[in-house]
Amino acid sequence: MSERFSLDNQVAVVTGASGRLGPIWIEALLEAGARVAALDLAAARLTEAFEAVLGRAGDAVQRFECDVTDRRSIESAAESVSSRMGEPSVLVNNAGIDQPPDSPAGRHALDEFPVEQFRKMVEVNLLGTFQVIQVFGELIARRGGGSIINIGSLYASVSPDPHFYAHLAGDIPFLKSPAYGASKAGVVNLSKFVATHWAARGVRVNTLSPGGVLGGQDEQFKAKYGARVPLRRMAEAADLKGPLVFLASSASSYVTGHELRVDGGFTAW
Fold this sequence. Notes:
The chain is 39% helix and 14% strand. By secondary structure, it is of the alpha/beta class. The protein has one domain (2-268): 3-Layer(aba) Sandwich (Rossmann fold). The radius of gyration is 18 Å and the shape is globular.
């Protein structure tokens, strides 16, 4: 059974590698035996978690510059990955943007929400995912198959509960961006489309949709969120690794077009 979950001698690509979830995916892939191409913007700030993974991984992780909103940048990254590491068999589409840290002065009511912010989030989260699939997915298909895992979200399925944010002070109530869930819902449907389109070429395409992941939230938020989850807590990094390796490896050889929600049962209620 352990061989079914092995990614030995495989090359995996992770976009948005230095973000909040990127290091979790990279570490999971490394632990399964893969070598990882870590893609991100040249100007991306390296998080402490990402630098720690790099320090432990040695040559098993190589960094590449890539802007998922720029087709030429993606193509250049794909050429570099293939040249330096070999043809990829796993793609984790993790690059995306959410809201910046809350600032009461920067909030908007729904009827005044800036369309520019909505458009930017869709451009990165949905169109960026599509372009990366076009370029790297075609490489995977040409080599005879592999696995594409698009990172979705709990909010691809449900609307954010404003009660979670009601304790945040400000004249205008905090509004979770409507563009975030909309863009992630688009990713779920896009995954199904590509899964059926490329199935005959041996490419499996699935969405992994995490629920809330611990990462510096205030105590009131964590308490309110945890009370809404059947497992009574937010996700930890270790909770996400197994599902990712399952979807990346041959352990899920008959799974495609699926959204795997790793949400502690949130959407079961």
